Amino acid sequence: MAIKRGSKVEQGFSASAMTDLMFLLLIFMIIATTLINPNALKLILPKSSNQLKDKAITTVSIQKVGNGYNYYVELDRVQGMQGIEAALQQRLAGQTDPTVSLHCDKTVAVDEVVKVMNIAKDNDYRLILATQP
After folding, report:
1. Closest CA to 92 of 60, 117, 118, 53
2. Strand-strand pairing, 58-65 and 99-104
3. 88-124 per-position pLDDT tens digit
4. Rg of the chain on CA atoms, in Å
5. Per-residue pLDDT tens over the stretch 32-63
6. 84 and 71 in contact (C-beta within 8 Å)?
7. CB burial class (10 A; 0-12, 13-18, 19+) of residue 95?
8. Mean predicted confidence (pLDDT) in 54-75
9. Which domains does the chain have, with CATH numbers?
10. pTM of the entire predicted model
11. Parallel, antiparallel, or unpaired for β 58-65 and 68-73?
């Protein structure tokens, strides 16, 4: 009498669970890397040992280009100080205790920084100067 085995073990390997896991990890990495660097302008910020943890509502960036400057509110390019003031008033209308973060390159003249500070003071905005730790 021949004895039959009750069950055979399948020796194949299913990689479908592994590909699902890799796909989910890839999606997570793509989302995480887009959230890490929200500021797309490449600025060399001045160094400071004192850091504030306040959350700014909007940002103003000044970038030196040749003999002039490019001004940005968030990532929208504006023309001169009048453009900065108009864009800030539009973005911060109706906000209580509005806070603006100022990002400027190390090569930007102090005069330009003071002009933005005066705009913030005239409109009762809190201003944070962004620095590098």
Report:
1. 60
2. parallel
3. 998 888 888 888 888 888 888 888 888 998 999 898 8
4. 27
5. 877 665 555 566 666 666 666 667 788 888 88
6. yes
7. exposed
8. 85
9. 58-129 (3.30.420.270)
10. 0.60
11. antiparallel
SS3 of 9-44: the string is CCCCCCCHHHHHHHHHHHHHHHHHHHHHCCCCCCCC
Give the pLDDT score at 17.
Answer: 79
State how far the Cα of 74 lies from the Cα of 76, in Å rounded to an integer: 6
E-strand ranges in 1-133 read: 58-65, 68-73, 76-78, 99-104, 126-129
Number of neighbouring beta carbons within 10 Å of residue 12: 4
Alpha-carbon gap, residue 108 to 86, rounded angstroms:
22
The encoded tokens of residue 33 equal 């890397």
CB 119 within 8 A of CB 109: no
